[in-house]
């Protein structure tokens, strides 16, 4: 049976740990394995960190909404924010064959999300960025 | 995140408990780099009790690894969960770091000064 929950946070790094705890609790209660819990936490941490760092053109408080839905065979995570239009998956892949000291700063987090999750899509709807990622269970 | 340390023979073992994420990365980097500046040349980071590492955490591991290497020392990792190992692998860093299944395996490696 599908189960779902919605988490809301402000654009404040201090709120990320509570979101991670809530995500972990929701997934563990619904019998997701450690690989799924890790991938979900990674995707949320990387994408929300990017939104808080780069997403806004003002200093105001903004709400970021995270919908988690788990069916028998798929976990779906949807992250919505009202920052400026930004597609995190429309960025060049980092060159991971370069020595660590020659790497570009940034890009590694999204590279992780692309590689650890099964699908990543981006939509702009009204003033909302909507990122949807899925992981097969 | 909590950082503890102990010695295993010649190795300074830095154990990370909890989440090495955006909020913990800076503290981890500062702690390890300080130890190297104080003279540590054989360092292994133990991830046995680390529940989560984000990209900021991976970057924070690269810094002391480079620092100790420049100083002529050696840096290693142990206690990687399958998920963490996968993260290092997709970062292209698994081949760069010395990794050991357990601390005992690290200590048994004859390379430490």
What does this structure look like?
The complex is a heterodimer of chains A (137) and B (113). Chain A has 137 residues and is α+β, with helices and mostly antiparallel strands. Chain A has one domain: Histidine kinase-like ATPase, C-terminal domain (Heat Shock Protein 90, 2-Layer Sandwich). Chain A has helices spanning 16-29, 34-54, 108-116; strands spanning 3-10, 63-70, 74-81, 119-125, 128-136. A five-stranded antiparallel beta sheet of chain A has the order 1-2-3-5-4, covered by helices on one side. In chain A, α1 runs antiparallel to α2. The mean pLDDT of chain A is 91. By secondary structure, chain B is α/β, with parallel strands linked by helices. Chain B has one domain: STAS domain (Transcription Regulator spoIIAA). Chain B has four helices and six strands. In chain B, α1 (22-37) packs parallel to α2. The model of chain B has no long low-confidence stretch (mean pLDDT 93). Chains A and B meet through α1, α2 and α3 of A and α2 and α3 of B.
Summarize the helices and strands and which ones pair or pack.
The complex is a heterodimer of chains A (137) and B (113).
Chain A: E1 3-10, H1 16-29, H2 34-54, E2 63-70, E3 74-81, H3 108-116, E4 119-125, E5 128-136
Antiparallel strand pairs in A: 1-2, 2-3, 3-5, 4-5
Helix pairs in contact in A: 1-2, 2-3
Chain B: E1 2-8, E2 11-20, H1 22-37, E3 42-46, E4 50-53, H2 55-70, E5 74-78, H3 82-91, E6 98-100, H4 103-108
Parallel strand pairs in B: 2-3, 2-4, 3-5, 5-6
Antiparallel strand pairs in B: 1-2
Helix pairs in contact in B: 1-2
List its traits.
heterodimer, A: 137 residues, Heat Shock Protein 90, 5-stranded antiparallel beta sheet, 3 helices, 5 strands, B: 113 residues, alpha/beta, Transcription Regulator spoIIAA, 4 helices, globular
